[in-house]
Design brief:
Keywords: Metal-binding, Zinc
Strand content: over 45%
Family: Belongs to the UPF0587 family.
Number of domains: 1
GO molecular function, one term: zinc ion binding
InterPro entries: CXXC_Zn-binding_euk
Pfam family, one: CXXC_Zn-b_euk
Shape: elongated
Mean pLDDT: 95
Number of helices: 1
Length: about 160
Amino acid sequence: MRFLLEITAEVCNIKSMAPWVGVDDPNMPYFFKLRCERCGIATKEQCVYMNVYVYHNGNRFNHIIKCKECKRVGTVELISGFGTKFTIADSGTYVPLMMFECDGMVPEDYSFNGGWKLKMGCRKAIEVNLVDNKFNGSQQEYGDLQPMVNNIKGRFTLQP
């Protein structure tokens, strides 16, 4: 099954927001939980990178996990080419970040992390950490044009 990871936020004084190298950054860590399709037990938070591969039954995946309850093996593959950067026009709406191909497990509870780039008007980009689901630049550093990112959320939507 395919799940699209979508993100939303409320932004102010920011032109765009994206992973530092871009939406298809192979070094971007994705933190989320997986729920077993068979028994419904959720895993602890997992960390998956697009450039890290593991093999199972002759196939290549970005992540493999076995359910602790029913022992079902689940796989995750990150598929590039589906994400877009988040712009000020998107504030308050969901935009796609990454496609997840999952077998045996369902992704949930995406957690933001470090390595995000905020572009502000004609200023150069700044790197921010979104672990706290927000970023508020200081007035001392940015004056009246403080960059702000609040109400950050991620969701996985099942794709047809």
